[in-house]
Structure formats: C-alpha cells, structure tokens
Amino acid sequence: MLRRLATEIAGLKLANPTMLAAGILGLTGASLRSVIDAGAGAVVTKSVGLKPREGYFNPTVVQVECGLLNAMGLPNPGIHHFAEEIREAKEGGVPVIVSVYGFSSEEFAEVATVAAKTDADALELNVSCPHVEKTGTEIGQNPQLVAEVVESVKSRVDKPVFIKLTPHVTSIAEVAKAAVDAGADAITAINTVRAMAINIETARPVLANKVGGLSGPAIKPIALRCVYEVYREVDVPVIGCGGITTWRDAVEFLLAGASAVQIGTAIALKGLGVFKSITRGMDTYLKNRNFRSVREIVGLSHRH
Fold first, then answer.
1. Is 129 a catalytic residue?
2. Catalytic residue chosen out of the listed positions 66, 129, 226, 241
3. Digit-coded pLDDT (tens) for 148-179
4. DSSP readout, 49-99?
C-alpha cells in the first residue's frame, strides 16, 4: 500500500485511513476478509450483543433517492458465538474492531470483555443505533450515560475503545468530551439519521419498524459538521462516517479533522472497488500537493 497513506489510530496501525463501517458485510469472518482483500485499512464488525437477536421482520432495508434506509433491529448471533468469525477476520492482517451494544453499562462491559478475549484489536461502542429501544440513541443522547458506558468498559478491557455517536443531540461535541473524559480512545461520528419512507399506494410506512436509519450521500454534510465540531473539542482521533463515496468525500472529512473514514453504504452503491478507488484518489491528492503523509492534512481546515 502507498506509504503516504499509512496512519495510526489509538495504537492501531493502518496501511490506509479507510475502514469498513459497522453493519455492512460484517457478520462473518469470510465477508470481513473480502473487505480486507478489497483494500480496507481496518474493518468494523456488525454490532454484536450479549445474546442472539433475530432483528426485525422484513422489509428492513429500502433504497431512497439519497441513500439507504434501514431498520435491521441489530440481528446477530451473540458475542459468545461470534468468536470464530473474529478469529477468521484477524487472518486478514488488518485491525479488526468489534462493534458491541448493550442495554446497560454493565452489559456493554460484559460483551466487550468477551470480544477482547477473542483477540479483537479494538472495540467500538454502539450507543447510537436509531431504531432499537433502550439502547443506541437513548444512551447516546445522554452525556452522563455515555460516560458510564465508557467507564464500565474501560475498567474491564485493555483494548482501545472507540465510541460511535449519534447526530441526534444538541451538542455532539459535548457528548464526545464526556466520552473522552471517561476514557474513550477515539470517537466515531456519526451513526445513521432517524428517517422513514411511506408507500403512497398502501399509505403505510415501507419499513416494518416504520422508522429506520438513513445512510449514504444525504447525511454527508451532517456527518462532516459533526466531525468538525468534535475535532475542536477532543484530543483523541476522530473517525468520520456518513456518506463517504469518493476520494473527495474522504479528503473533506480528513480536512475537517477525521484521522480515518468509515465506508458502508458506498459498498452497496459502488461495490467493494470503492476502497481502492478512494485510496488511490487520496494518494494522488497528497502527492500533487506535496504532502508526505496523510496525517499532515488531518484537521487542516481548522488551521486555514
């Protein structure tokens, strides 16, 4: 991989600053390996909880003009049955970050402890799922609850802990600061945005859950603003997520303060080739402007 793209986040060495976002191709070791083979610098698994969960009935995903709308309901086999998938993904040779969720700070810590024992390189705490009650945004909108979750997990594991935040707050920077003060090693901004679609023929919501999370190009300006605000407030790496489909999008996020970017919906829209397309474009951008490392442009918009 091109040397100028190499970077480091919370002690994790990445050949390039692209990551697979949680929720896309992250449920099996084989699918994670396919993303690694496509050129991702790191991968994040699907969110996994303490117990198996079936998720919602179909339809759970619908394509809209500006992206994808989903309400999967956090389907997963449970962390105790997910260990083998993590081990298989680890064979790909890039950092494997396990996304975990829980319905209390203690449950987050219990899931994280099991994930850490399976040799996950880092943990990403999902306190921002917009469509499952009593977890996700109900925790992520409260700085005190976010801090409690981070403190609980950090007291039990010695792996880097990332926390994925929701945009549905008055001040995402305030929540990020609470997470960092509690020990978070990096901030991921953002998760999907609450949204819905209605079928005008049946007069019913399209998703079985009625409300889901919007991802894709429509939320990029929101995510970019959140990264910009969080970067000004915290002294840990920020990982940008939301609507990144081209190398130009990725560069924007880096200039706003992201040390890396996560890619999800773009895979559904463009295929796995999007990783190499983005990294090649970023490398050309850096080369043409005489930057020796991608780290030189992180947060550059704040210094201009």
1. yes
2. 129
3. 999 999 999 999 999 999 999 999 999 999 99
4. -SS-B--PPSP-EEEETTEEEE-----B--GGGTHHHHHHHHTTSS-EEEE
